[in-house]
Amino acid sequence: MRSVSIIGIGQTPVGELWDLSARQLAYQAVAGAMADAGIDRADALFVGNMLSGRLLDQEHLATLVADFCGLRGIEAAKVEAACASGGAAVRVGTMAVASGFHDIVIVAGVEKMTDTVGKDTTAGLATAADAEYEALHGVSFVSLNALIMQRYMHEYAVPLDAFAGFSINAHRNGANNPNAMFQDAITREDYMRAPLIATPINMMDSSPVCDGAAALVLVPTEWTREFTTGHHRGAVRILASASANDTLAVHDRKDPLFLEAAYVSSQKALRQAGLTQADLDLFELHDAFTIMSALGLEANGFARRGEGWRMATEGEIGINGRIPISTMGGLKSRGHPVGATGVYQIVELIQQLTGAAGANQVKDARLGMAQNIGGSGATIVTHILGG
Amino acid sequence: MRSVSIIGIGQTPVGELWDLSARQLAYQAVAGAMADAGIDRADALFVGNMLSGRLLDQEHLATLVADFCGLRGIEAAKVEAACASGGAAVRVGTMAVASGFHDIVIVAGVEKMTDTVGKDTTAGLATAADAEYEALHGVSFVSLNALIMQRYMHEYAVPLDAFAGFSINAHRNGANNPNAMFQDAITREDYMRAPLIATPINMMDSSPVCDGAAALVLVPTEWTREFTTGHHRGAVRILASASANDTLAVHDRKDPLFLEAAYVSSQKALRQAGLTQADLDLFELHDAFTIMSALGLEANGFARRGEGWRMATEGEIGINGRIPISTMGGLKSRGHPVGATGVYQIVELIQQLTGAAGANQVKDARLGMAQNIGGSGATIVTHILGG
Question: Considering the entire predicted model, what is its pTM?
Answer without folding.
Answer: 0.98
